[in-house]
Amino acid sequence: MIEFQYARATDVADAVRQIAGNPSAKFVAGGTNLIDLMKMEVERPTKVIDITRLPLKQVEDTSDGGLRIGALVRNSDLAYHAPIEQRYPVLASAIMAGASQQLRNMATTGGNLLQRTRCHYFYDTSTPCNKRAPGSGCSAIDGHNRMHAILGTSDACIAVHPSDMCVALAMLEAKVHVTGASGDRSIAFADFHRLPGDTPQRDTNLDAGEVITAVELPPKGFARNYSYLKVRDRLSYAFALVSVAVGLELDGDTIKEGRFALGGVAHKPWRDPRAEAALQGQPANTATFARAADVLLREARGYEHNTFKIDLARRCVVRALTQAARGTPQSQSSKKIA
Amino acid sequence: MADSRADPSFHSPNDPTRRANGSAGAEISVSLKVNGTLHALTLDPRTTILDLVREHLDLTGTKKGCDQGQCGACTVLIDGRRVNSCLTFAVMYEGAEITTIEGLAINGALHPLQQAFIDHDAFQCGYCTPGQICSAAGLIAEGRSKTAEEIRELMSGNICRCGAYTNIIAAIQQAMGRS
């Protein structure tokens, strides 16, 4: 790890002031990903600004019936927060599907959004990687790409976003509130993370010098019919091969509204309005779910070691939609997939 | 420079390629409690709580396994919550109360979890054990698991290469029964 200057920020304005004009400065909160990356010298900030003292630790009701989650709310606290468990159980479930309790006790809401890919080549500074060293090439495209993306890839990068929580936030259509030198703005969740294109070094549309202050959930939580299904190489404490967050609004057996987002398949949580349109007004049965999955995966492309993900994703979508329709969401303790 | 002693995660402070520009690397004063004792320290900001307890305070019960948050051997309690101490900058924890495996026994009486691990032979090589026990102490405090299945899931951040998991779960269940 290279040496760095350590500084503490007292409030949001102070944090923004301290990072302004310093492209080699980083904010640190939970530190669970940044410190790891600094040890590997993938991240080499010369200044680290500790934002853990900022007053962003509350979960509050919004005037429209949603919830506003402070950026510093820890992942475990959020998953166990009663209004989240009751009104947004898909979010609680997704959080509990990720990492370990030790990491969830440290990791923050804002930091979860900003974690970097776990692509092995991104971490291995002896190999080319366009995300870590733009222009150096992508080692994964012709390398060990079992964990990599099947949707939204580019010739420059096939990395996936590693978060579980973000998959649920994408499905719930959360908003990300940020503050920068030029003021406050909010970003729709679908617009927060980017596809790699020819600038894979940019994971998000957060501008330099901006800090995430909150994540806002709209009122609709799909608490009755939801599921978060995650398939991985071991039963827990592993990144997803494929994960699916589902929310259904049913009128009898007919789908009034259906949403699903996938993790482990793209550079961002993956949603497809065309696939969701294939659910609307249709009977909640396997044939409908399979059609929607096919629409979503129409443009999927596998690489040497991850073509299996296309079929796996299709099955996960059908299974998670089935679980949601039955009102029997996937348990994150019992690993049996019903 | 901070005291980096035997810690292999520190590179030579004289290696110019690892030096940041300007005023980077200035040491920082921090006061925190470890196992009930207040320590006022001046640290290189790169110092993790894992390195702090092992290399500065000679509390070597907490183990450095992967040093990347993947194995759980370094688990300690910070303000009562279990965390991976390898992924913490100690200077961020001004005023915190840290409990390591050395702080669990009281006046020589083993913590119920320590006794339960002995009763159930819940280890072989023992390297992961301090982390397992601190993690289990956090798990019990959280009060979120009742069944063996739930304990297994919420202990999944602690890897045991010897595979003593069955006995670890039995030991935790015993300690939960008593707490």
Task: Describe this structure in a few short sentences.
With 338 residues, chain A is α+β, with helices and mostly antiparallel strands.
Largest interface by Cβ-Cβ < 8 Å: A-B, 34 and 47 residues
CATH architecture assignment name of the largest domain in chain B: Roll
Q: Give me the count of strands of chain B.
A: 5
Main-sheet strand order of chain A equals: 4-5-8-6-7
Beta-strand percentage range of chain B: 5-15%
**What's the order of the H and E elements of chain A?**
EHEHEEEHHHHHHHEEHEEEEHHH
| CATH top level label of the domain at 226-326 in chain A | Alpha Beta
Uncertain runs of chain B with pLDDT below 50, 5 residues or more? Answer: 1-22
What's the order of the H and E elements of chain B? EEHEEEHHHH
Distance between the termini of chain A: 45 Å
User: What is the helical fraction of chain B, as a range of percent?
Assistant: 25-40%
CATH superfamily of the largest domain in chain B: Beta-grasp domain
**CA-CA gap between termini of chain B:** 45 Å
Largest sheet of chain A: 5 strands, antiparallel
- CATH architectural grouping of the domain at 226-326 in chain A: 2-Layer Sandwich
The major β-sheet of chain B equals: 5 strands, mixed
Q: What average pLDDT do the residues of chain A reach? A: 98
